[in-house]
């Protein structure tokens, strides 16, 4: 699994002109599910993201996790994170998991993130044409890949 985690002051996802989810201070997470990903990858990411200390403490130092600041989370499925660009100029999606694997893992990630943190977790809609808006706070952007856990 690959993720792009952005610390935001606000974010939303709109589908067909209707706002599906919106959050205030927290994380906007793009999640790409790769061939071979499992629930073990979900569990590792959830724990890592929940413990990530990128919110300012009283001294203005990035030292607090999202749970300490009462943040919210928006998770958007993003198969394009798995783009292969080695040959030519048109990306290939051969490393992205098929729907029958990626949808259940995406849903599990969202559910477990909520259960583990106790925070609001908004979602997009898997496979939909989504318009995502956000205000990156910092900017702070962290990329994680379960294939590179060390």
TrEMBL record:
Enzyme Commission numbers on file: 3.1.1.96, 3.1.1.-
State the span of motif (Gly-cisPro motif, important for rejection of L-amino acids).
Answer: 138-139
Give the UniProt subcellular location, in the record's own words: Cytoplasm
So which domain of life are we looking at? Bacteria
Q: Name one GO molecular function term.
A: Ser(Gly)-tRNA(Ala) hydrolase activity
Main localization (coarse): cytoplasm
Catalytic activity, as annotated: a D-aminoacyl-tRNA + H2O = a tRNA + a D-alpha-amino acid + H(+); glycyl-tRNA(Ala) + H2O = tRNA(Ala) + glycine + H(+)
Q: Name one GO biological process term.
A: D-amino acid catabolic process
Q: Which Pfam families match?
A: Tyr_Deacylase
Q: What does this protein do?
A: An aminoacyl-tRNA editing enzyme that deacylates mischarged D-aminoacyl-tRNAs. Also deacylates mischarged glycyl-tRNA(Ala), protecting cells against glycine mischarging by AlaRS. Acts via tRNA-based rather than protein-based catalysis; rejects L-amino acids rather than detecting D-amino acids in the active site. By recycling D-aminoacyl-tRNA to D-amino acids and free tRNA molecules, this enzyme counteracts the toxicity associated with the formation of D-aminoacyl-tRNA entities in vivo and helps enforce protein L-homochirality.
Record note on domains:
A Gly-cisPro motif from one monomer fits into the active site of the other monomer to allow specific chiral rejection of L-amino acids.
Assembly and interaction partners: Homodimer.
Q: Which NCBIfam families match?
A: D-aminoacyl-tRNA deacylase (TIGR00256)
UniProt similarity note: Belongs to the DTD family.
- What name does UniProt use for this protein? D-aminoacyl-tRNA deacylase
Q: Which gene encodes it?
A: dtd
